[in-house]
Request: fold
Amino acid sequence: MKRTSSALPYSLPPLGINREQAAAVIGVSPTTFDQMVSDGRMPQPRMPSKERYVWDVEELSEAFRRLPHRDGRLDVESRNANPWDRG
Reply:
């Protein structure tokens, strides 16, 4: 992902990214990303100000890992958010 601000050192990745960046992070178009947000497969954005929407990078990563694989299987973590609860 390309840096949007030179104010951050490379050792400090951004916590939030815009819509286009969020779509690129998970490998889909912005339109497809919007659909995924609408249907709950991707998280809702955070609002640091009234007209600014930002997606939490960690939340995107977690949501991406919950998506099924092509063969329909889910990762172990996807089936149960807390591995200690498996039993």
